[in-house]
Design goal:
Elements: H1 8-15, H2 29-40, E1 52-56, H3 59-74, H4 84-95, E2 106-113, H5 119-136, E3 140-144, H6 146-149, H7 154-162, E4 169-178
Helix pairs in contact: 2-5, 3-4
Length: about 200
Amino acid sequence: MDGILGNDVISNIINRRSVRKYKTEQIKEEELDLILMAGQHAPSGGNNQTTHLLVIQNQEILKELRALVEKEFAQMEVYEGMYKSLKDSILASRKGGYDFCYGAPALIVTANKKGYGNALPDCACVLENMMLAAESLDIGSCWINQLRWLDENQAIHTYLEKLGLAGDETVCGGLSIGYKADKVKEPLKRTGNPVTYIR
């Protein structure tokens, strides 16, 4: 493993961790621009380049969005076999004080065209590029699914449209981003994602 870690790109991939505690200060504009540029250079199906990035740094907007997300989740029903993280979001929202983006000073929402078959994979590539770029700058980030889970919620979609989301776009994911508040722990041990060789 030590030999592999001599490669900066591989080291960055292995050492990246999801960060859920952030300092309140915004990251520098030039750092944000680099992270967004990395996202914009992600591959896309047929080179469509239709992933739309909404960069929300306004704290009042984030506060309103957090409150709206909590309200809409709290009204949802929990059912047996529900995806655990979605269930946790609903239950946490019912308790109150739910912050789906972990107090990050910025949230980047990724969206793509409704009905476009590569919407989700294209956005996933953009998000991964941005997470790796952030890590290379010692900036914390965490993939955020909550707005994707609420994509068909009219209140959420209407609110995001006021911020610039197009009516023909679907939310595919998001990224909380900011300076790390705590020292990040060692990389997680990987026990899943099996590999089968056919040689």
